[in-house]
Design goal:
Distance between the termini: 42 Å
Radius of gyration: 16 Å
Order of helices and strands: EHEEEEHEEH
CATH class: Alpha Beta
Largest sheet: 7 strands, mixed
Structural class: alpha/beta
Strand content: 25-35%
CATH topology: 2,3-Dihydroxybiphenyl 1,2-Dioxygenase, domain 1
Number of strands: 7
Shape: globular
Strand order of the largest sheet: 2-3-4-1-5-7-6
CATH architecture: Roll
Helix content: 10-25%
Number of helices: 3
Number of domains: 1
């Protein structure tokens, strides 16, 4: 059975949007990029699912994928953990869901989780679906080492 592992929301102000979800729903901040402002993105979690709040669509930004423009706002993609990536890919293609090509410029170098590239498909309403059999936990650990990311600080015990 597939499990939702992350949801990515596109917004103009990731830090402000993240504060809303933290304040009203108790989500925990995992990290932000850049570390001091979160201007490019803030990653939250409820303890089960990662919630990436991202900013796309700056001047000259490329199209994000078929059916999605750099001006889009809302859910950009949903990431699923699956038991078998290739079997899931075949199933999606047999149901006429099209793969989203990943430009070479966006392919990651090798990381602790393998090639670090999700298989991407356009689902209903052209919402992008990412599938992977492992790697989200490793991705966050790797990103915190690679980028200027700020780990969440535990609140002081009273």
């Amino acid at each position: 059975m597939a499990r939702i592992r992350h949801i990515a929301l596109v917004t103009d102000d990731p830090a402000k949007t993240a504060e809303f979800y933290k304040e009203h729903f108790g989500l925990t901040e995992l990290y932000r990029r850049p570390g001091d402002t979160g201007e490019k993105g803030v990653w939250l979690s409820d303890g089960y699912i990662y919630f990436a709040i991202l900013k796309y669509g700056e001047a000259g930004a490329p199209k994000l994928g078929p059916g999605q423009t750099s001006e889009m706002r809302g859910i950009h993609h949903i990431g699923f953990y699956v038991d078998d990536e290739q079997a899931t890919a075949k199933e999606l293609e047999a149901a006429n869901f099209k793969p989203v090509p990943i430009p070479k410029s966006e392919r990651s170098e090798r990381t602790p989780m393998g090639d670090a590239v999700n298989l991407k498909y356009l689902g209903p309403d052209e919402v992008q679906i990412d599938i992977r059999s492992r790697g989200w936990n490793e991705a966050i650990s790797f990103a915190m080492q690679r980028y200027d990311l700020t780990p969440v600080k535990e609140e002081a015990a009273e």
